[in-house]
Amino acid sequence: MSLGILDLMKKRNDSKVTEFVLLGLSSSWELQLFLFLIFLLFYITIVLGNLLIMVTVRADAHLLQSPMYYFLGHLSFIDLCLGCVTVPKMLGDFLQQAKIISFSGCLAQIYFLHFLGASEMFLLTVMAYDRYVAICNPLHYLTVMNRQLCFQLVFACWCGGFIHSITQVSLVIQMPFCGPIELDNFYCDVPQVIKLACTDTYVVEVLMVSNSGLLSLVCFLVLLLSYAIILVTVRTRFRQGQSKALSTCASHLTVVSLIFVPCVFIYLRPFCSFSVDKVFSVFYTVITPMLNPLIYTLRNAEMKTAMKKLRKACGILLPY
């Protein structure tokens, strides 16, 4: 065993902290009961909404062959998993006074949150490229965005998310914790956890900004540039189909804003925290996975048609 691993194990053995206390969204018992009901509805919407999109895309042969809906199915799977990282724990904490999370459970939340979050950012960037090819080069769209390339791009998104997540966990696991143990949030994340370390966190916070913060900002700027080019192309070169292209881009831009604005706000500023951080955290971990299915279905005629076909095929009355 190398000396580096031995030193890391020694640091972990010297650490006295085995669990953290989550302060949650409120200390009022009555308000917590109200929030439990609200977030329970949110969680049910996340699960059912994203499952509905996944099943609809899988059941419709036309949608399944379309690169855009292939990516949308993966996005819904990520949102489904992302909603399960923090919300179930938060719902349980609403019903008890002691909101405890073990150190290993905290690391697991950080890992899956950043794994899924980064994968979603990369996937949204891929979806922007897909829309760029579809609108700016429509005659070669299916040739360029073939099934093999789509698979490779999705695989690259998952790999990028994995590398990013491992980096975030490594920033936390090497740090000594000896108290305090209170995290001012409803879940574990790197910015809050590293502030509890019994050592100077300057270098780690700079690394966090260079990793999570710059990742969010760069992807966000690339997406904005991509959709700006698309909108200019649609405006100058095409007359027919403008409304459909603009509607699709508007849906994507809405999702992009809901995800990237909170992430840029949280991760691009080290050494400080604000009271509104929890609000942005709720948007990133709960609201965005819930709204994505609604945004993509309410503004998408093809998804509505496919859902009607699915309803008729299954004999189930689905609201739309």
Your description of this structure?
This protein has helices spanning 3-14, 29-59, 61-65, 67-94, 103-136, 141-144, 147-173, 190-194, 202-237, 242-267, 277-298, 301-314; strands spanning 19-22, 100-102, 182-183. By secondary structure, it is mainly α. The chain has a single domain (19-300), classed as Up-down Bundle (Rhopdopsin 7-helix transmembrane proteins). Strands 2-1-3 form a three-stranded mixed β-sheet. α7 packs antiparallel against α9 (202-237). Residues 1-6 and 8-14 have low confidence and may be disordered.
Main attributes of the structure:
disordered N terminus, olfactory receptor activity, globular, mainly alpha, 12 helices, Rhopdopsin 7-helix transmembrane proteins, transmembrane helix, single chain, 320 residues
Detail the topology: elements first, then pairings.
Layout: H1 3-14, E1 19-22, H2 29-59, H3 61-65, H4 67-94, E2 100-102, H5 103-136, H6 141-144, H7 147-173, E3 182-183, H8 190-194, H9 202-237, H10 242-267, H11 277-298, H12 301-314
Parallel strand pairs: 1-3
Antiparallel strand pairs: 1-2
Strand order of the largest sheet: 2-1-3
Tell how many strands the DSSP assignment holds: 3
The run of helices and strands is: HEHHHEHHHEHHHHH
Largest sheet: 3 strands, mixed
- Approximate helicity band: over 70%
What does this entry show, briefly?
With 320 residues, this protein is mainly alpha-helical. The protein has a single domain, classed as Rhopdopsin 7-helix transmembrane proteins (Up-down Bundle), CATH 1.20.1070.
